[in-house]
Hints:
The protein has helices spanning 78-87, 114-127, 140-151, 174-184, 186-195, 212-215, 238-247, 262-265, 268-281, and strands at 26-31, 37-43, 63-68, 92-96, 132-138, 158-162, 224-229, 251-256. It is of the alpha/beta class. The protein has an eight-stranded mixed sheet, sandwiched between helices. A hairpin with a 5-residue loop joins strand 1 and strand 2. The radius of gyration is 18 Å and the shape is globular.
Amino acid sequence: MNNGPAGHAAHSTVRPNAETGSRTPLRTFLRTSDGIPIDFVYEPGGVVYESCADASAPLSGDPVFVVAHGFTGDADRPHVRRVARALARYGAVVTFSFRGHGASGGYSTVGDREVLDLAAVVERARGLGHARVVTVGFSMGGSVVLRHAALHRGDVDAVVSVSAPARWYYRGTAPMRRLHWLVTRPAGRLVGRYGFRTRIHRRHWDPVPLSPVEAVPRIAPVPLLVVHGDRDGYFPVDHPRMLAAAAGDHGELWLEPGMGHAEHAATDDLLARIGDWAVRAVGADG
């Protein structure tokens, strides 16, 4: 799998009134720079920090949260919808399905070319009138938001990475050994396709993409929040600590007591704290 630079996304297949800045929900498909159609969902959100938000207000002051789901997720999964509902209290929300997932085209490259998917989605989110974009990624999506911010400097205003790996090829836990079987074996890819509705590319990475821990130092000065559970069954706590160490002063680490892995383990309280942090980080709290 090649990791070519992400170009600009083609325009969506629909051009609704939302392009002019109105608070209109939208579902459409975007096309990435390498031609993959991506299922894209935009919801204006409620914006709790504004005391007098109204349907005619301009969007430029509102942040938009772009939610990057984990491996085998998609925009319609209940746990992704729950995250979207929680963050919608703080701004508009974009959810989407990575390549090979849900209604999107192509095949999953498990965090490599998914950077192109996120680049297309972030560009479209800005095109909807939002001056401030916050990416929030979980597990595989957590690694993608880190790599995207490093490779597309200036495209986002804050980054939140939840339950992400620090390094590639980790097999130190039973869930990760099962995931490697799913990705690398023909029988595993069949299980992925028919059991998890995830189409996985059969080719190995070539070249190996920039790892999350290598990406993190390149994100500064964009605010970065790393969130991880101390009971994560996939990636133990040395992963978030590596990311935080690589981030230095521009990153913040929340090691959550009793939390497991990714969207399923993110409580409503945690999602609210993430929303509060993001609003402060991008200066949208007043």
